[in-house]
Design goal:
single chain, alpha/beta, Elongation Factor Tu (Ef-tu), domain 3, Rossmann fold, Ubiquitin-like (UB roll), 3 domains, 6-stranded antiparallel beta sheet, 5-stranded parallel beta sheet, 16% helix, globular
Length: 345
C-alpha cells in the first residue's frame, strides 16, 4: 500500500534514473553494525540524484544470480545515498552471505527501485505503534526518521535475541527520537523481553500498527492485535524472511492442484496453467513476464490486479481483508479457485 509523503521537502533535482529498470550503484562504504549485520551505503558513481522514496521502501538487489530485497534505512531526505543493512544468514540461499563476505567499497551492485509495499499511512488522531524484531528494524527505523522529520508522535518498540545482535542501537539511544524508543531482548540481560499483549493493549480507534520482524513475531502481533480490537485494515506488516516454497503441484492444505487458465486483459489471450506450474512460470514461457523475486508470496514484486475469477491465495503478504477482496494476488505462488482468472496485464 502507499501513501502521500508525510514530509513536505524542498524541491530536489529530478533523478534521471528510472526505478523500474535495473541500474548500477556503487558501494561507497560498508561497516559491521553487529557480528552478523553489515551496513552498506550506496550511491551513483557520478554522485547524481537518486530516485526519491518514502519510509518502508526497499531496493531489489542482484546478488550472484539471485534477486534479494533490502529495506532502505536512511533518511528519505538524503537523495545522494541509499543505506541498506544485510544480515548474514548462514542457512539462507546464499545472497546475504555473498554480499557480506565479498562486497566492499568501490564494488558495483545492480539494483532496481525503490518500491514500497509497507508505506506509512497519513497521520491519524492516534500516534502509530511501530514494532520491530531483529533485522526487521530497518524499515521501522526509516519510519521513525520520517515521522520525526514531520514532527509527528509515535512509539517504537524493538526486540532482538540480545542487545549485541540489535542494529542501530547508538542512533536509537542517541535522543534523536526523544523517549519514543523502547528496547527489549529475549535473553533478558539488561532489558526485559517484549510483551506483545501488554504493548498492544486494546486497539484505539484510528491507530495504525506497523510490524516487521520474524514470521512468528508478525503472526503473534497480528493475532493479538485483532483479538484486542485493532481494525484489520490498520494492521500493516512486512516479512523479511521467506518460508520454504511448497512443491508446485501441492496446495497449502496438501490437496493436489488443478489446472486452470489465465486471461491477459489487455489482449484477451488465454494461457493454460498446468497443475505443476506456477502462474509466473507459465506466463513467462508464453512471453508474458511479471517481476518476481521471493517466489513464495512475501516480497510483493509480482503483486497483480485480478479483474475476474477467484484467486487461491497462498501468500504471506496480503492481509486477510486484502485476500478476501480478491482484487489482487501474488502469481508467484498463488493459484485459482475458478477455471479462469482475468489479470490486469
Amino acid at each position: 500500500m502507499s501513501s502521500a509523503p508525510l514530509v513536505q521537502r524542498p524541491a530536489a533535482p529530478a533523478s534521471l534514473i528510472d526505478p523500474s529498470q535495473w541500474f548500477a550503484l556503487q558501494v561507497v562504504s560498508r561497516r559491521n553494525e553487529t557480528r552478523d549485520i553489515v551496513v552498506f551505503d550506496l550511491a551513483l558513481a557520478d554522485g547524481a540524484t537518486l530516485p526519491s522514496f518514502t519510509a518502508g521502501a526497499h531496493l531489489e538487489v542482484q546478488v550472484g544470480g539471485l534477486i534479494r530485497h533490502y529495506s532502505l534505512c536512511s533518511s528519505p531526505d538524503d537523495r545522494a545515498h541509499y543505506r541498506i543493512a544485510v544480515q548474514r544468514e548462514t542457512a539462507g540461499r546464499g545472497g546475504s552471505a555473498l554480499l557480506c563476505d565479498t562486497v566492499g567499497p568501490g564494488d558495483t551492485l545492480a539494483v532496481r527501485g525503490p518500491f514500497n509495499h509497507f508505506a506509512l499511512q497519513q497521520p491519524a488522531a492516534q500516534p502509530p505503534l511501530l514494532l520491530a524484531g531483529g533485522i526487521g528494524v530497518t524499515p521501522v527505523l526509516c519510519m521513525a526518521l520520517e515521522l520525526t522529520a514531520a514532527g509527528l508522535d509515535f512509539e517504537l518498540h524493538f526486540s532482538g535475541r540480545s542487545l549485541e545482535h540489535m542494529a542501530f542501537l547508538p542512533l536509537l539511544r542517541s535522543g534523536v527520537f526523544g523517549h519514543r524508543v523502547h528496547l527489549y531482548a529475549d535473553d533478558g540481560r539488561g532489558v526485559a523481553p517484549m510483551d506483545l499483549p501488554t504493548l498492544l493493549g486494546s486497539g484505539k480507534p484510528g491507530r495504525h500498527l506497523y510490524v516487521c520482524g520474524p514470521g512468528g513475531m508478525i503472526d503473534a502481533a497480528d493475532r493479538i492485535a485483532r483479538a484486542q480490537g485493532w481494525a484489520g485494515d490498520h494492521i500493516h506488516f512486512e516479512r523479511f524472511g521467506a518460508p520454504a516454497a511448497l512443491p508446485p503441484g501441492t496446495a497449502t492444505g496438501g490437496d493436489t492442484c488443478e489446472a486452470f487458465e489465465v486471461e491477459i486483459a489487455s489482449t484477451g489471450r488465454r494461457i493454460p496453467i498446468a497443475a505443476d506450474q506456477s502462474i509466473v512460470t507459465a506466463l513467462a514461457a508464453a512471453g508474458v513476464h511479471i517481476p518476481m523475486s521471493c517466489e513464495v508470496g512475501v516480497c510483493g514484486s509480482c503483486r497483480t490486479r485480478v479483474l475476474a475469477g477467484v484467486p487461491d491465495h497462498r501468500d504471506l503478504l496480503l492481509s486477510p481483508e486484502e485476500q478476501a477482496a480478491n482484487t489482487e494476488f501474488t502469481p508467484c505462488c498463488s493459484r485459482s479457485k475458478t477455471p479462469l482468472l482475468v489479470l490486469d496485464l
